[in-house]
């Protein structure tokens, strides 16, 4: 029987798509084709229950395969996608008194997958924040300049809201608070179930890095995928076709009462199949629709300085949490 053996939990815009695309080529590994499943952090999916998630993860899996998925937003620590809101001030779903915000998603994972291996790719949080901002601009959901967005998100109330309920446009900074988030995972899981790799390792030494990953999750470590020369979802600032975003179209259609009624009139099995096909199509279209390798504007020195000052204490503490040197700390010292 196939089993769920690993999760790629994050971080967003740190190389998780490349890791996903490399790992899915391994003959002993099975991963859903849509990449992000959004279960443990998504209230609307989580309510569907474990059987739904298990069916999603194991569909098409060969016998004895090690199954896994890559949902970078699991590293938010707290549920957000599709969560009900009270006046858009706070999520209805809140942690129990005995757990922190950063433990909600880890505890959900632990409940169903106590022995799962957790894979995490980390990148310089300043560069990661800007890369996420560029992606959201590309999708048409962000009209602010990067400096304007940082100014607003640095406000204490905005920062608190983003940590409680991260969204596409408020999480540029909080998703880079790696120590805060991973400390929550390590209060729930033993340290030996978490592997951290850095994005530059995956980019510069993909074969060696993957060998350690494969060994960690328990598959043949000498397998080398044939797509290691490809970097997936590298920086892009222009779409091939502006406005081609299936999720935006879906959200617009969902606001039409007749469309909603017709959708809910369909049998559940049909809706499930359509949802899966839609997710796979959106992933593939999103990969194709971005023009890569285009020179983009640089982060202004003032914005970079503000972000370094914000991330520095968290990154310094991260070294103690994951027992590794943090490569971007040296880069920040040189930049000063």
List keywords for this structure.
2 domains; two-stranded antiparallel sheet; alpha/beta; 9 strands; Rossmann fold; 336 residues
Describe this structure in words.
- The protein has 336 residues and is an alpha/beta fold.
- The protein has 2 domains: 3-231 and 302-335, P-loop containing nucleotide triphosphate hydrolases (Rossmann fold, 3-Layer(aba) Sandwich); 236-295, no CATH class.
- Helices cover 47% and strands 11% of the residues.
- The strands form 3 sheets. It has a 5-stranded parallel beta sheet. A two-stranded antiparallel ribbon has the order 4-5. It has a two-stranded antiparallel ribbon with strand order 8-9.
- β4 and β5 form a beta hairpin.
- The protein is globular, with a radius of gyration of 20 Å.
Instruction: Please count the helical segments.
Output: 15
Structural class: alpha/beta
* Spatial order of strands in the largest sheet: 2-3-1-6-7
- As a percent range, the share of helical residues equals 40-55%
